Amino acid sequence: MSLDEDTRWLEWVTRQFETIAGEDKEIDLEEFKTALKVKESFFAERFFALFDSDGSSSISLDELLKALDLLIHGSETDKLRFLFQVYDVDGSGSIDPDELRTVLKSCLRESAISLPEEKLDDLTLALFESADKDHSGSITFEELKAELESFPEVMENLTISAANWLKPPDLEEKKRHPPRYLTPAYWHNNSRKLLFLCGYACLNVLLFAVAAWRHASGGPWFMLAKGCGQCLNFNCTFVVVLMLRRCLTWLRATWVVRVLPLDQNILLHQIVGYAILVFTVVHTFAHVMNFARMSHSHNTYRLWEYLLTTRPGIGWVAGLASISGVILQLLVCLMVLCSCTFVRRSGHFEIFYWSHLSYIWVWVLLVLHCANFWKWFVVPGFAFLLEKVVGSAISHMNGLYIVEVNLLPSKVTHLVIKRPQFFHFKPGDYVYINIPAIAKYEWHPFTISSAPEQQDTLWLHIRSMGQWTNRLYEYFRQADTPAASTKRLTMNMTNGQHQRKVQVSAKLGDSHKFCNIKCYVDGPYGTPTRQIFTSEHAVLIGAGIGITPFASILQSIMYRYRMRKQNCPNYSYSWCENIKDNEMKLRKVDFIWINRDQKSFEWFVSLLTKLEMDQADKEPEGRFLEMHMYMTSALSKNDMKAIGLQMALDLLAKKEKKDSITGLRTRTQPGRPDWGKVFQKVAEEKKGKVHVFFCGSPALGKLIKAHCERFGFSFCKENF
């Protein structure tokens, strides 16, 4: 650090010390633990003991500054010696197996990783045997140093860790970048959307100007009201077009997808919704001001009579324009409010769902309110009605049955539904499902997680995040039987001349059950991920349950792989290069799955294991499918408390040829991905144009999209 940075660092540490220490000007062990925010007290105690140089059971400001100065300004050897002292619990000058096991056990707890005692012993043995070069039964400082030097990445991160440990955040230099919306990459990657929005804005301006000019004789407030009214005619119709899911799914298979931003229909629907709110507020305000002017100038009716009665006779149907306008204003505000992210993402999806159904009343009132609205609405309205009728008829024609349920970690419900013969979909598609046993009238969208090639069943993975999904999970969790059985039990109930089967329950275990519950499915509907097979290099990024669309895609890819391998078992060339079909242009797929905790990997670990087995044979140009797993709760390699554990996990993975956390061959990486390095590696592979497909939280999506624009990659976010 520079002299100026040193001065600021000293001031910051002093302020932090005074805040933590309190009146006695000393930091005791409990205060030190609180300041470090560590989960496992072992490291806090070891750091405290090393900082407390005089053995007084408290740390003074001078002791803290001396220790931090060594960690930040000290040499590489100084930092390694500090790490060695942390591991050397008894201070004997060497690390024995028991000390190493204690350290690794604390590392596991700190990283929220749960492993059997036998696996902990294996980790300890792997690291100890590798580091104990002279087989003396203990690890000296020189041996630990030599072992760390064989892991250059760990050595680099040790320096980073020491330099940033307890470093003030304001010392991190913030690089100034131009706003992403002004970069050429952003305009290039979003050209279709931006051109479309530009055309949409120009059309609104044109409609407003023409309507206002035609009613110039009514005064400025009347002109403003009429201009906004004409824009509302268009927008209240266009918002319907953007939700014609079947039409959009069909258009995605045509050339239109290369011209119009069909994959952004949800975003455009939201933009048009906000535009409707703005136009409605301005339209209402302008009419109120005009009515106020008229009530003062004519003295025929009062303002409240203009607004809340039919006496003035305004409107083409029984003078209902004003009353219907007030109701419309309230309904539009309610719909927009209940559509906000904080409502939909806070476990109250039902509020959004039921409030959005008021669109029916909005259209009815619009027809009563405006004499010309029906002319705008008749064609899109008919298409929307036709979609609803066709969807309802298809979904109820043959009621489907949930035949199997798996309750997975993190309250994820895996539904296995018997697939009808006429149901055809593509990887990444989603459906709306209705389960009368949970809620008779509610339909909810979920991605199909099984592959189209899987003929007998459909899979849905549903995470409990709201009222309906929680009820679904609890419904199956609480379904008990007098005795566990592997047979499906049903009982017949007679209702008139019809006989139906009602599922009682049959358990294979507490989390795996057979059942026979009726459900209805509307769909399938297409998503941006349909483009994956026309990409050359696809990067699939799933966060948590966001893996579901990619589970279907990965299975479909490997189904095709197996089919081609059967047709040409003795090939000695890369199948993705030489055995293509018209729908498949893929040359490389990188799959990145980010999970918060260890248990979340259990959702699809069996599927991922099969995918790895399918690629057991090496190909001349390297693996077609590469998987990258990240566990965010685990301390990353730039944390001093995790270095030993990560070295042990690396060594054991090489020895056993599988990851200790997931059981996959792919090593699970701790912490969050460094997107700059990830995309740099992708760019260096030069497998063709890169398309990044993402499904996960909006905040992470924005971060990944910004990196994609930096590298010139196309970005698609899974949305429905």
UniProtKB/TrEMBL annotation:
Residues 39-74, 75-110, 119-154 form the EF-hand domain. Its main location: membrane. CDD domains: EFh, NOX_Duox_like_FAD_NADP. SUPFAM superfamilies: EF-hand, Ferredoxin reductase-like, C-terminal NADP-linked domain, Riboflavin synthase domain-like. It is a multi-pass membrane protein. It is found in: Membrane. This is NADPH oxidase 5-like. It comes from Scleropages formosus (Asian bonytongue). The lineage of its organism: Eukaryota, Metazoa, Chordata, Craniata, Vertebrata.
